[in-house]
């Protein structure tokens, strides 16, 4: 027996979400059928609004409901530092820490020759543009500790250093609460390389 068309359509929509297979999609669809109508309307509205009300900040590339975003607009933040991340979600993680008070720049990806992603596909020109303003003195590269993240960091360092900008990279090493015994060789190597005086 086939599902009635509205249910089939909803199941199909749920399968477009990451990590949701046909079975889970069907379970969610039937759950929605039993939900109060006000909740369903609110849920549907939230889905529409998240697309309609969000925009990309023209300065830093962050996802925001204002343009420029609130971080770029905040004059109390340290204007001499820009932290470069792969993704807008990274900005949110770093903001949760509440210890970084500089600015951000979102690349929207990393260099990946395998997937055909080159420098022209990243939000790099806007970064170069921002550096023409001499208030920025340090660029902290916070791409992920993956091969692509490293290659992107090296590319940016080569690009920015000749302009006299201080380019730093987030430290990589042992995670808090971990044992040296269980750390992999690359992590240990990075931890030794990134050691600092105490
Ligand atoms: Zn911004």
UniProtKB/TrEMBL annotation:
Zinc fingers classed as C4-type: ranges: 57-72
One Pfam assignment: RecR_ZnF
DNA damage among keywords: yes
Alphabetic keyword roster: DNA damage, DNA recombination, DNA repair, Metal-binding, Zinc, Zinc-finger
InterPro entries (alphabetical): DNA_Rcmb_RecR, Rcmb_RecR, Rcmb_RecR_Znf, TOPRIM_dom, TOPRIM_RecR
Alphabetized PROSITE patterns for the sequence: RECR, TOPRIM
Domain Toprim as annotated: residue spans: 80-175
KW Metal-binding (keyword) present: yes
Task performed by this protein: May play a role in DNA repair. It seems to be involved in an RecBC-independent recombinational process of DNA repair. It may act with RecF and RecO.
Annotated family: Belongs to the RecR family.
Record's protein name: Recombination protein RecR
Organism annotation: Fundicoccus culcitae
């Amino acid at each position: 027996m086939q599902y009635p068309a509205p249910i089939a359509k909803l199941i199909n929509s749920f399968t477009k979400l990451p990590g949701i297979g046909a079975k889970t999609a069907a379970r969610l669809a039937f759950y929605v059928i039993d939900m109060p109508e006000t909740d369903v309307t609110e849920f549907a509205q939230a889905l529409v609004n998240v697309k309609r009300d969000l925009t990309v900040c023209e300065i830093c590339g962050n996802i925001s409901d204002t343009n420029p975003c609130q971080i770029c607009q905040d004059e109390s933040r340290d204007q001499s530092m820009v932290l470069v991340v792969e993704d807008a979600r990274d900005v949110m993680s770093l903001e949760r820490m509440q210890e970084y008070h500089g600015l951000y720049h979102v690349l929207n990806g990393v260099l990946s020759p395998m997937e055909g992603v080159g420098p022209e596909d990243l939000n790099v020109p806007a970064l170069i543009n921002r550096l023409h303003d001499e208030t920025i003195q340090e660029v902290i590269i916070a791409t992920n500790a993956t091969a692509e993240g490293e290659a992107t960091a090296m590319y940016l360092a080569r690009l920015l250093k000749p302009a006299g900008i201080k380019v730093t990279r987030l430290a990589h090493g042992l995670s808090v609460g971990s044992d040296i015994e269980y750390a992999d060789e690359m992590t240990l190597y990075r931890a030794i390389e990134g050691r600092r005086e105490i």
